Amino acid sequence: MGTSVQEARSLAGIGVPLTFSIIPGLRSYREVAAFAASNGVETMIHIPMQSKGWPQRRLESNGLLVSMADADIREHLEGFIRDIPRAVGANNHMGSEFTEHEQQMTSVLGVLKGKGLFFVDSVTTPKSVGQRLARETGVRSARRNVFLDNEQSSTYILGQLNQAVRQARKNGGAIAICHPHPATIKALSAFLPSLKSQGITLVRASQLVR
Question: Where are the domains of the chain?
Fold first, then answer.
């Protein structure tokens, strides 16, 4: 998130616990962060990281690259935290290349630990070392269970939401990640308010990290 305050308003208007993950530097990221803070919405830093498709696949100009020195990675992270000071945690935006590298992820997690932030591994690659290293270094962490909107169709998104419910019932909890696309917001608005009657409790990301 970070491109539109209206998207933030629409999501908050669903009236259920959600966590906004905001990419520092996007055109409206400060406004989205301020909206979240004033409306009691939990926020995380959505850290842009190098993917396997880079540079053909675009990365934000402030994104983390595998080639960066430890000091540069730490400087970027500290800047992100200053930019979104109310954030309580972080997760990776893209990062299918970056999150496979132990040295670079250790730098990221070291900053998060020093600031008391948790880490949610978005698991954009099955070879991610993020959550394992987080546990080894004492950073509270969790991992993404379901991506809701890899396809922008109501049928697909509702199917993924039901998958998240099944995983929550089986494992005691599940983290679902999505984007603020119109089809996603529409599906969430229709689906999420009904979960309470099904015995499912919606919580913020911070309540699922260990």
Answer: 5-207
